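Data deposition worksheet. Section B asks for the primary sequence of the deposited chain exactly as it was used as input, without tags or linkers unless they were present during the calculation. Section C holds the resulting structure in token form. Section D is free text for depositor observations; keep each observation to a single sentence. Incomplete worksheets are returned to the depositor.
Section A, Depositor: J.P.
Section B:
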Amino acid sequence: MSDLQESLLGLDARLEKIQKLGKAVVSAVTRARNAARTGELSEIPKALAAIGQRMAEARAQAEDLPAQWNFDAVAYLSDGRFVGDLEEAAAKADLSIFERDGRIYCFPLLLRIEPKELGVKIAGKVERRINPAELVRLLIRAQKAPQRFREEQFLNLLYRAWRRLAGSAWSAAGPGPVVALSDIREMFTLFPGTEYPPEEFARDLLLLDRRPDLRTRDGCRFELPASTLGKGRTKRIIAYDEQGGEHVYIGLRFVRDGLI
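Section C:
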């Protein structure tokens, strides 16, 4: 059992006791109210005494409760224990999950641990339900949900950026010049506050790469050649698929077939 799981189970057991005492307080109050409504005078002192006793018991159990919860969540999220527990929970649920360069991959979902937030960022939102077993259930549910990513929109966005970078080097006929994908991603993040991590850009390229039939609005097809720019200093864009396989992307060009 993990450190987190042990701490959570201990806390839950303590809270269960307090919850039962709370129900006993409510039950005693109900007895006292019934006696007050019906005028059962012999019952009123007993019911009021029971209220005081149950409340004292509940107060004694809850008094040092905040001090009892001393789990160091920041350390747990930072020192590798959380990743290990998450991978173990995922394996039990037959969910493919792995870590690369500090990022957790659960294709097509990308997770980033945020220790200071006491959570995990998924698709730009911080998920604070980090009990590994619970998080795995959430990830399985998210994988089965319809994906919001639209390859057609992404393709046309790439096309617009590529045309700006290609400039006059393309006559709008035949194959265009190869442009570094790292330069295109840089265009996407020029505005202050714009966040598009390279891992997410790589994931989107992989999803697009699986749709070679797609065309831009004006009929151009895309190519993702690696050889033309591969020998230079161009940054590589690395994507990982469902099994952890590596896919390297370097350049992009568009081709208008039928025109030379």
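Section D:
The CA atoms of residues 240 and 246 lie 5 Å apart.
The longest strand covers residues 109-114.
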